[in-house]
Amino acid sequence: MSNSTSRLPRKAIATLLAAATVGAVAGFAPAATATATATATATASAPSHSGLGLGLDAPYTSPATQERNKRVAVHVLTQLFEEGNLKVADRYIREDYIQHNPAAPNGREAIKNFIRDWTARFPDHQYNVKRVLAQGNLVLVHSNPVYEPGTRGAAVVDIFRFDPRSGMIAEHWDTVQDVPATSVNGNDMFGTVSNPHTNQPSGPRWSTALSEKIATSYFDTLLVDKNPDAVRYLAPEYYQHNPTIPSGSAGLREQFTNFFRQFPNLIVERKRVIADRDYVAIHAHYRLSPEDRGQSVVDIFRVKKQKNGELKIIEHWDAVQDVPATSANDNTMF
Fold first, then answer.
1. Which helix (H) or strand (E) holds 287?
2. Which listed residue, of 146, 192, 307, 312, carries a Cα 20 to 30 Å from 128's Cα?
3. Chain centroid to CA 305: how far?
4. What is d(CA 314, CA 303) in angstroms, rounded to the nearest whole number?
5. Is the alpha carbon torsion for 131, 134, 140, 146 positive or negative?
6. What pLDDT, on the 0 to 100 scale, is given for residue 38?
7. Beta strands 234-240 and 169-178, pairing class
8. Edge-to-edge strand order for the sheet containing 138-143?
């Protein structure tokens, strides 16, 4: 797809699709109705680790280990990008580290080389971690890296897979989007509007499975099955952090009916899910047609019990990045 013909459709995906989900720079970086292709692609990047699982199928990892992995992920990001401390790479990242950021090769040494160049270019870089989720051996970090003081920076979602044997980071995916100057909904791309006003997962751990079921049912019904009736999973107030979309769920059924008519060949493949109490993140590959390279999209949902006792999706953040034509590694972004 040429640049001249893809601009409008990509804008449509970045805006309209993001409205439905309450959900550059190298960072650190399947459930019931997801397609078989999505499952196969998600596990193909590391065949020796198939069975580490994604989403509802994830094997048991103790809460203590998950919290430890969260701390390690944040420590690695801030020490590398803010301090240029390469020792954390040797301590916490496997030598044969698998990289899915298209701008970076595989391996621990490639990260260290990148950081040397990065900190020389941006000595005042701040990573600004906003929220951290963990499930199984996966950790998701949602951040606002600001490369130079006074700039808006980027919305970045890093996903790490930890090796359960060594406790080291074995694999990384990310999605990077520049933060725009304005927002039509009045919300920034990172804060929390719904109660409680915390950026971190809240509620009992047993609620994770319920939240994941709501979010993935919504996502699959709407985007995989192309059924606009999926908007029944959204709370009426539905707070939006995609800067191009107003808040609220009113009118979305009609908008999506029209969108699916306009793009009948839309393909959305869910790759991995990370659910942590009231938060659910879905990493997916969005394409307008089989020939389209598409976009890497991470949607982050917040699920909340309504007054009538029903669970609804109440808030959404995302990051959207075009899949480039070339990559420094052979792993794809997914």
1. strand 279-287
2. 312
3. 23
4. 6
5. positive
6. 35
7. unpaired
8. 93-99, 169-178, 154-162, 138-143, 129-135
pLDDT in tens, the chain (334 residues): 333 333 444 554 554 554 444 333 333 332 333 333 333 333 333 333 333 334 444 557 899 999 999 999 999 999 999 999 999 999 999 999 999 999 999 999 999 999 999 999 999 999 999 999 999 999 999 999 999 999 999 999 999 999 999 999 999 999 999 999 999 999 999 999 999 999 999 999 999 999 999 999 999 999 999 999 999 999 999 999 999 888 988 878 888 899 999 999 999 999 999 999 999 999 999 999 999 999 999 999 999 999 999 999 999 999 999 999 999 999 999 9
3-state secondary structure 150-166: CCCCEEEEEEEEECCCC
Distance CA 324, CA 3 (A): 12
Locate tokens 């996966």: which residue? 138
- DSSP reduced 3-state for 12: helix
Q: How far apart are CA 105 and CA 81, in angstroms?
A: 17
Q: Is 227 exposed, middle or buried (0-12, 13-18, 19+ CB in 10 A)?
A: middle
Task: For residue 323, give the nearest of 40, 102, 16 by alpha carbon.
Answer: 102
- Where residue 203 falls (left for φ over 0; alpha for ψ -120 to 50; beta otherwise) is left
CA distance 33 to 172: 25
Confidence (pTM): 0.84
**Omega within 30 of 0 (cis) for the link into 201:** no
* Residue of 135, 142, 234, 240 lying closest to 183 (CA atoms): 240
Q: Considering only CA atoms, which of 297, 263, 304 is closest in space to residue 282?
A: 297
Determine which helix (DSSP H) or strand (DSSP E) holds 99, and give its type and residue range: strand 93-99
CB 281 within 8 A of CB 273: yes
Q: Among 251, 223, 222, which Cα is nearest to 236's?
A: 251
Neighbouring C-beta atoms of residue 282, cutoff 10 Å = 29
